[in-house]
C-alpha cells in the first residue's frame, strides 16, 4: 500500500488575482478615483472566480465588476468586465485589453 503524499497536487481552493493583474486593475482604479468617478472597491475570492467590484459610493451595488474565471480561459476568455445590471461589457484572455472598455469611459469623463 502506498503512503499518502504529504503535499498532494491539488487545485487551489480559491481563485485569486495575481500581483500583475492587481497592478493593472489598481492603476486604472486610481485614475478613476483621481477623476472623482469611483470611491470604493471590494475584492472577493471564491473557488471558481475572483471578483474586483467597483463602487461609486460604499453602500450601493457595484458599478462594475472585473471577474477572473480560469475555467473560461479556453472558451470565451478568463477575464470579463460586467456592468451594474450584469451585462458583459468586454471579455477576453488579455486583462489590459479587457480593461480598455473602462478606460474609454475615463476619457469621456475628463473631457
Automatic annotation (TrEMBL):
Top-level taxon of the source organism: Bacteria
InterPro entries: DUF2794
A Pfam family reported for this protein in Swiss-Prot or TrEMBL: DUF2794
Protein name: DUF2794 domain-containing protein
Organism: Octadecabacter ascidiaceicola
